[in-house]
Amino acid sequence: MVMGAMIFSKQPLDDSVLIMLPQVKILHFHHCSFEDFLLSTFFVQELPEISTVQDRSHNERQLSVLCLKTLVSSKLHFNMCNLESLIIENINIQSTVKSIIPPLILYSSLCWVNNLIQAPSDEKMTEAVKFVMYEKLLFWLEVMSLTGNVYEAYPILRRASTWQVCFQIISLKYI
Questions:
Q1: Which of 24, 52, 25, 22 has its CA nearest to residue 39?
Q2: Of the ranges 19-23, 66-70, 156-160, which is most confident?
Q3: CB 63 within 8 A of CB 8
Q4: Taking a C-beta distance cutoff of 8 angstroms, is the pair 119, 125 a contact?
Q5: How do residues 2-16 score in pLDDT, each as one tens digit?
Q6: In the chain, how many domains are there?
Q7: Cα 146 from Cα 76, distance rounded (Å)
Q8: Sequence-ordered list of residues with C-beta below 8 angstroms from that of 4, at least 6 positions apart, any chain
Q9: Nearest CA to 123 among 135, 115, 131?
Q10: Is the domain of 62 the same as that of 145?
């Protein structure tokens, strides 16, 4: 799972994010050509028992589930950075935001749709997207804004509208 996540994730993932994948035993890889090796035909021939690492839909689904579980969890919540206390204490908000918003929340906020549109859908994923759209959308926008990614929110929601199930969830045609 770690190898598949490394190949198909939309951004580099650190150990704190990879450990959140189901049934993961953390491995450390430090060579930049490792991804090329994992995707090679040689790899499939030599290690067929773990060749599922090349199964894009399986790995995209795993990343989608990780992102959606993160977004529907209490980790994404109102006033993520406790801005009222930061303003009172006159603290640099931007540097504090980077230290408060965990990498998993940031990755999930930025990449959930990219993984989602590549993965086969099911009822649980549909329900998770529905929950994010109806219950967590403003919290997600807060993260996007605080991390300087607010201009990515519109393209992300536009890509979400291309996901076949999204039309059943919420009307995004006016985005």
A1: 52
A2: 66-70
A3: yes
A4: yes
A5: 667 766 776 777 667
A6: 2
A7: 13
A8: 52, 53, 54, 55, 58, 59, 62
A9: 131
A10: yes
Do residue 29 and residue 92 come from a single domain?
Answer: no
Q: Which of 55, 73, 96 is the last residue of a domain?
A: 55
Q: Within a domain: residue 175?
A: no
- Residue 34, token pair as written in the block: 């490792």
Q: Domain range holding 155? A: 57-169
Residues 36 and 24 in one domain: yes
Q: Does residue 86 lie within any of the structural domains? A: yes
Q: Which of 55, 77, 92 is the last residue of a domain?
A: 55
Q: Beta-carbon neighbour count of residue 77 at 10 Å?
A: 12
pLDDT in tens, 78-88: 988 777 655 55
22 and 99: one domain?
no
Measuring CA to CA, how many Å separate 60 from each of 4, 9, 30, 63?
8, 8, 22, 5
Q: Please, is 8 exposed, middle or buried when counting C-beta atoms within 10 Å of its C-beta (0-12, 13-18, 19+)?
A: buried
| DSSP characters over 39-60 | TSHHHHHH-GGGGGGG-HHHHH
